[in-house]
Amino acid sequence: MTSNSPGQEPVEVEQPFITHLVELRDRLMRAVIVTLVVIVALTPFANDIYHWMAGPLMAVLPPGSKMIATQVASPFFAPFKLTIVAAVFIAMPYILYQLWAFVAPGLYAHEKRFALPLLVASVALFYMGVAFAYFAVFPVIFGYFANTAPEGVTVMPDISAYLDFALTTCLAFGAVFEVPIATILMVLVGFTTVESLAEKRPYIILAAFIIAALLTPPDVVSQTMMAVPMWLLFEVGLVMARILVKLKRRREEAAGPESMDAMLDRYEAEQAAVEGRSGEEKSP
Fold it and tell me: Where are the domains of the chain?
């Protein structure tokens, strides 16, 4: 509902709390239904999806090599588990759209201008991180592991163990690729400044290698392939944060010294409109 007053813009009237809960339930149900539909659509191709996921490992093993299953139900549960993860991965844009549609009405216009691009960029960066892990990291680290195996040792990976390793690595790289978003958010909310982050660059680089050591197997190859992109992405986030801070300052300077007064006037007008509307609803 909206309330109109002469000379004022339409003001959105606050909705009851139960209305927000109903809307949240509806949007969650839509997200779940779409995800289930994708799972059903992918289930007939579960084995093909797993074969594709195991491709980087099988490519570096000797010809004729096979994976094994050490548990009775692994041949069924491993591909099905991967299918569920793939379905969530595919449905993620729609899930985040439902989240945005629920949150957006409660944001101011200037908050939407920042939040929506950051949300889209975070999704794109996560996908890029997963793709980087699959197409760039997996061939290198699996080749390294296969070539360093002791003589006489036959590599026969378990399908469940491999899936857990592959999913963990993909999620780790997806999270690492969110570093630019985290850097920008810390600067925009005032938690830190671009100058402060630039001064702490040596410590941040050290932290990147420590985090990589915790998230990757204990070999220097995989650690380096995570730490270096993490550092470079931090630099990208630093550049973007510096640009956004400059744009924000220019916008504030262009608005003039009366911008704060105008914001307060608008806030008071909105509060008066909401209170007036509430009084009308309570009156007989």
Answer: 2-282
